[in-house]
Queue: 2 jobs
Job 1
Amino acid sequence: MKNFSRNIILGTITAALVATVIFMGCTEHKSKARVSKPETPAGWHLVWSDEFDGKQIDTTKWDFQIGTGSQYGLEGWGNNELQYYRKENAFVKNGNLVLEARKENYEGCAYTSARLRTVKDDGTELFTKTYGRIEARIKMPTGNGLWPAFWLLPATTDYGTWASSGEIDILEAKGRLPNRVYGTVHFGQAWPGNKYTSSMYKFPNNETIADYHVYSLEWEPGVLRWLVDGNKYFETSQWWSLGAGASEPYEYPAPFDKPFYILLNLALGGNYDGGVSPEDSNLPAQMLVDYVRVYEKNDPYATGVKRPTPQRDETNFKEFETADGHNFIFDSKLNHVVSETKNEGMSSNENMDVKTHDWYFLALSDFDGKAVSSKEDDGRRVKITNPGNQNYSVQLIQHLPVAKGYSYKIQFDAKASAPRKIAVKLGGDADNSWSVYSPEYYPELDTTVKHYSYFFTMENDTDATARLEFNLGLDSNDVWIGNVSVTQEEL
């Protein structure tokens, strides 16, 4: 009897649902995308949105970016992407913004797609926001080489060029890995001194990016939170911004205290997923955006926030020696340099004693480097006869300890026989997988001695034998370096 009664009840409900669908089917296209309108998140109120309910894209809210990125100095959009962005690949249909990737030859590209943002090329701001909850309900395509994204870029360059003024990726997906998405924040210095932190969300219950999901960012002073369908999976308060030529970072929470604008795009190929190309059978592919909404917090935002002190390895740090109670470089004038023969440079990294305070001069034969070094004034001159095929073909290296959670300033004086760049970084040896601890710094040298400095926070595990590298390859002009210091600094 219980099963019989249950079947009657279910049959009645099913009939009612069928009748409802028949009644609404010809008039309510939006029901295919939005099952029910989500409630406003607790503690927030709506300040801007696009529900895509009209017949065309609202150009008072969105502008198209066209081309390959070359007009912005970013050929391949800075990521070796394969598509040409066109207006024709973006449109509104059945209550969705549709970004469509197609297999078609256009302006020298094998693919086309679409990219929209809330500012114009002439700098006109259609919509920008500092702080808030920014979210979108999106359904994405699957398949190799498909790279949909929902993200934010700074509306100003107050803190410098990318990524010193920041970037926030609310959502990025790799079409060939449909069971996961990623949230990322970019910061630090101008490229190539940029840094980033990221996290991944894996969908439960066999769900994928091909289903509609709500992707959200909660952005407050000193904190960024990423959510999928209301589930927080990533939160960070650790970032910094260092301007060109500066030795100290901007005051926290820079760069994420300025207005940013919104972007939506569907890229193909590119560096993000290792240059995987799309398969013709997966094209055309569509990214469907049901809505984009921006909320303001009901309560006032916090003021005077400070960068959280990262967890520090105090135990090891207290054991590390310094030359003068402050400088971890014992030979700041590069008096003691170990070379192979006649100052021609060691040909490999294998014979370095990482526990001494000696400098090591390397001209790596595997990378066609050839040079000699000599003591000059309060530093060392390196005369390069073959610059090699890598910036590390010719190197000056000093080992020193760096502890997790501590911040450091690297300083030195340098000049060159003619204008050129060198590459400076602090990282690990082979036993630490050649990890890079600091941003790689590319100072521009000329014929006069200048002082250079830059700053970084050690986010990797403590390394008692890290290596400070002055990489002098790729250019045959002589280099002089002196007065080197690495000091621990408070933010």
Job 2
Amino acid sequence: MLGLQFTIRGMLIVTALLAVICWTLACAVWGHTWAVAVLLSLVAATIWVLGQIMLFAVAALASTIFNVTQRKKLTSPFANETPAPQILPTDHHVAD
């Protein structure tokens, strides 16, 4: 099954990260300027990531609706229907 797999290590990491975030939030409530700055940067990063996800979803939806994912066969603008004539060197040996 390809679902999410939870491990004790992963849950401990998530718990530790959330504890640090909550502690920083508590420091921001107590009036520490650094904590406010850290939390504002985390909020800005979260909004940026969610915006990127939304833009990707809109592009994927538009691509599906308008069927723009089909590419034309790429060909050289210099290619003709027939190959170019080959110019081969003659069998003359040049005297040294």
